[in-house]
Design brief:
- The chain is of the alpha+beta class.
- Helix content is about 25%, strand content about 30%.
- It is built from 7 helices and 11 strands.
- The strands form 3 sheets. Strands 4, 5, 6, 7, 8, 9 and 10 form a 7-stranded antiparallel beta sheet that branches.
- α1 crosses α3 and α2 crosses α3.
C-alpha cells in the first residue's frame, strides 16, 4: 500500500532532501505549489510539512516559508573498551573525549543521584533480590546543544561503604570506573546488550521525536564485572537511533582507525 497522501508527499520531499536536490537552507515549495503539484488539500500538505518538521528535516520561518534544515552529523561511538586505558567505550570520559575528537561539543549534566529499590529487570542484571536497595546515578548528555543521550547507572548498595562517593551529586573527573579501580574494584570486563526499540513518552519528549514512534531509540544495557566476576554496575544508555553509529572492535585493530566506520 502506498499509504496516506500526506506521507507520500513527505517521503518524496525527504528523498529530495537526502539526495541533495533540496540542499540545506533551500526553500521548500510553498503550500500552494505543493497543493497544485500533488492535487492535495491544504490540510494534507500541512500534514506532510509537519511530518518533515517533526523529523528535523525542515523548519518554518513565519512569513517567509519552509526551509531545509542543516543535517545533524551522526556521532560514531566505540562500544569496545580502550586498549590503552582499559576504560569502557561509549560512556564517561572515553565517550566525551571521542565526541570532542570528532570536532563536536559534548556536555554531560551533573547526575541525579539517589537510592531506589531494584525492579525485576535491574535485579536480574545485577543478580540481587528484587526490591533490594541500589544506588542510581542518572545523567543527560548533549552534543552541540542537542539532547543526545540518557544514561542511568545502577550499583549494588553494598558498594556504598567502600565507595561512598557514588552518592556524590557531582561528576567524577577521573570517571567512576577509575574511582572504583583506585579502591580495588577493578572493572575486568563488561557485556553489552543492544536493542533498537520504540521510545517511551519521556524519551519522545527529551529527544523531540515524532509521537508516532517511527524514529526509534537505541538502548544499550552494560553489565560490568569486577576481577572476581561480581556484577558491580549496570549502565543503561539510550540514544536517538538516527543520530548515532556504533563501532565494535575485535582483535588487533590499528588504534588510529578504532573509532572510524
Amino acid at each position: 500500500m502506498a499509504g496516506p497522501l500526506y506521507r507520500q508527499i513527505a517521503d518524496q520531499l525527504r528523498r529530495m532532501i537526502e539526495s541533495g536536490d533540496l540542499e540545506a537552507g533551500a526553500q521548500v515549495p510553498t503550500e500552494d505549489q505543493l497543493m497544485e503539484s500533488y492535487h492535495a488539500s491544504r490540510n494534507t500538505v500541512r500534514g506532510a510539512l509537519k511530518e518533515l518538521t517533526t523529523r528535523g528535516l525542515v523548519y518554518t520561518l513565519h512569513g517567509k516559508g519552509t526551509f531545509v534544515s542543516e543535517r545533524v552529523r551522526p556521532i560514531v561511538i566505540t562500544l569496545t573498551s580502550d586498549p590503552v586505558t582499559g576504560r569502557g567505550g561509549g560512556e564517561g570520559l572515553v565517550y566525551t573525549a571521542e565526541v570532542a575528537a570528532s570536532g563536536r561539543s559534548p556536555v554531560m549534566h551533573d547526575p541525579e543521584v539517589g537510592i531506589r529499590k531494584a525492579g525485576a529487570a535491574i535485579a536480574i542484571d545485577l543478580q540481587v533480590p528484587e526490591g533490594t536497595e541500589i544506588i542510581v546515578r542518572h545523567q543527560n548528555g548533549f552534543v552541540d546543544g542537542l539532547p543526545w543521550s540518557r544514561q542511568s547507572s545502577y550499583y549494588p548498595r553494598s558498594l556504598e561503604v567502600r565507595a561512598p562517593r557514588l552518592l556524590d551529586t557531582g561528576n567524577f573527573k577521573e570517571g567512576t570506573v577509575a574511582y572504583l579501580a583506585e579502591l580495588g574494584i577493578q572493572q575486568d570486563g563488561y557485556q553489552d546488550a543492544i536493542e533498537w526499540r520504540t521510545p517511551d513518552e519521556i524519551e519522545t519528549a527529551y529527544f523531540d521525536l515524532p509521537a508516532d514512534g517511527h524514529i526509534q531509540v537505541v538502548e544499550i544495557r552494560r553489565i560490568a564485572f569486577d576481577q572476581n566476576a561480581n556484577r558491580v554496575r549496570l549502565t543503561v544508555t539510550v540514544y536517538r537511533a538516527d543520530r548515532n553509529r556504533f563501532v565494535i572492535n575485535v582483535g588487533r585493530v590499528p588504534r588510529n582507525v578504532m573509532g572510524q566506520a
